[in-house]
């Protein structure tokens, strides 16, 4: 299947010089010169700096299985989704740019948003920002745990996706949005099935277009060991949601 591979890192989206109001989940910068790394993320993705390549299909397995339970939690800064440790079915991602690295196990999803509907994403696409950017974090199963994998050169893979704010109501996220009312306060959480809370991810599984590049974590310690898979086509979300 044809996918886009970024062969030259595009402009780094560095918020260090932006007004505080524009920062999206970056209240402090440590170290202050973190933008000087060779493979730092996020970036402004430009199609002019990418090449089409043929890769094996990228597959998400067991992510929407009805037996998989998801804890949705208000961390105080974002909404976090984690799979219960008691589950015997572990969602994973294989294929695509990960083919030579093995299987990557689902670790969690978290969101990034800003104070304005048109500015909240970390990555940009052709210079454009989106209201929300989600990160679906996976770790290489050959390291057995996330904590071990996060320090290895091929340890992590993150799927990034966007939501754009507009008049169109997104019914696919309605169940998830309704349960957000139950976690208004920090450290509150609710349990849902993966299909109820993450069913909207099925749109990514059927998408034939994504960008991939080697980059870094966007939070401390900013390690450059992340295989990024970025879906440029945003999903819809209404202001009321």
UniProtKB/TrEMBL annotation:
<dbReference type="InterPro" id="IPR023561">
    <property type="entry name" value="Carbonic_anhydrase_a-class"/>
</dbReference>
<protein>
    <recommendedName>
        <fullName>Alpha-carbonic anhydrase domain-containing protein</fullName>
    </recommendedName>
</protein>
<dbReference type="GO" id="GO:0005737">
    <property type="term" value="C:cytoplasm"/>
</dbReference>
<dbReference type="GO" id="GO:0004089">
    <property type="term" value="F:carbonate dehydratase activity"/>
</dbReference>
<dbReference type="GO" id="GO:0008270">
    <property type="term" value="F:zinc ion binding"/>
</dbReference>
<dbReference type="InterPro" id="IPR001148">
    <property type="entry name" value="CA_dom"/>
</dbReference>
<feature type="domain" description="Alpha-carbonic anhydrase">
    <location>
        <begin position="13"/>
        <end position="241"/>
    </location>
</feature>
<keyword id="KW-0732">Signal</keyword>
<feature type="signal peptide">
    <location>
        <begin position="1"/>
        <end position="16"/>
    </location>
</feature>
<dbReference type="Pfam" id="PF00194">
    <property type="entry name" value="Carb_anhydrase"/>
</dbReference>
<dbReference type="InterPro" id="IPR036398">
    <property type="entry name" value="CA_dom_sf"/>
</dbReference>
<comment type="similarity">
    <text>Belongs to the alpha-carbonic anhydrase family.</text>
</comment>
